[in-house]
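Write out this protein's structure.
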Amino acid sequence: MDTTSLGRKAEQQAAQWLKFNHGYQLLSKNWRTRTCEIDLVMKEEQTIHFIEVKYRKNSSSGYGLESISKTKLNRMQNSTQEWLQQNPEYTKYELSIGAIELTGTKLKITNFIQSINFDT
């Protein structure tokens, strides 16, 4: 299986895990702007979560969450406003940018950050 297919499978696994373990509802998948792709946009109660999914076969080249750059987070943060413009029914919700990491051939969830703090 190529890396794109593995990445898409990891995104599907992450969406299912968030749905069944945390009650999230999938709103958008692989949502794109000119500068950014957001893997999952999900709703949980009164929060819209913009989730980056990272998959690693193993940790020999580092963990997936370590590869999320400040630039990527800033692009995701900027893209949230564009998503809201296209989905005005969610403008009264709180926004959160998070990340989820999967590893191994069985796509095991190894880390989940529900909300990334931008103040640090």
